[in-house]
């Protein structure tokens, strides 16, 4: 499985930790971003994975959710 697909799957797992009324918005937002960036060159991938991780942390913090739940995403994005 590609790194991008693993990161997307992990982001969707993190969305399940969010309040129920926000899950639809964030899952749609994640999908749109992964679709929009599917044809980028490999030189920008590392930056996009870092943005994915940091934005996920921001959202978790916004809803007061333990950021340690994003450890798997950190592992995926830092490879």
Structural class: mainly alpha
| Mean pLDDT over the full residue set | 92
Give the overall form. globular
User: How many individual helices?
Assistant: 4
Radius of gyration: 12 Å
Largest sheet data: none
Unreliable segments (pLDDT under 50, ≥5 consecutive)? none
Family: Belongs to the complex I LYR family. LYRM9 subfamily.
Pfam families: Complex1_LYR
Protein name: Complex 1 LYR protein domain-containing protein
Organism: Lupinus angustifolius
Describe the structure.
By secondary structure, this protein is mainly α. It has one domain. The protein is 75% helix and 0% strand. It has 4 helices and no strands. It has helices at residues 3-15, 20-36, 42-62, 71-78. Helix 3 runs antiparallel to helix 4. The longest helix has 21 residues, at 42-62. The chain is globular and about 35 Å long. The model has no long low-confidence stretch (mean pLDDT 92). This is Complex 1 LYR protein domain-containing protein. Residues 5-50 form the Complex 1 LYR protein domain. It holds the Pfam family Complex1_LYR.
Can you tag this structure with a few keywords?
globular, 79 residues, mainly alpha
Helix and strand arrangement:
Layout (H helix, E strand, L loop, with lengths): L2 H13 L4 H17 L5 H21 L8 H8 L1
Helix pairs in contact: 1-2, 1-3, 1-4, 3-4
Family: Belongs to the complex I LYR family. LYRM9 subfamily.
Protein name: Complex 1 LYR protein domain-containing protein
Pfam families: Complex1_LYR (PF05347)
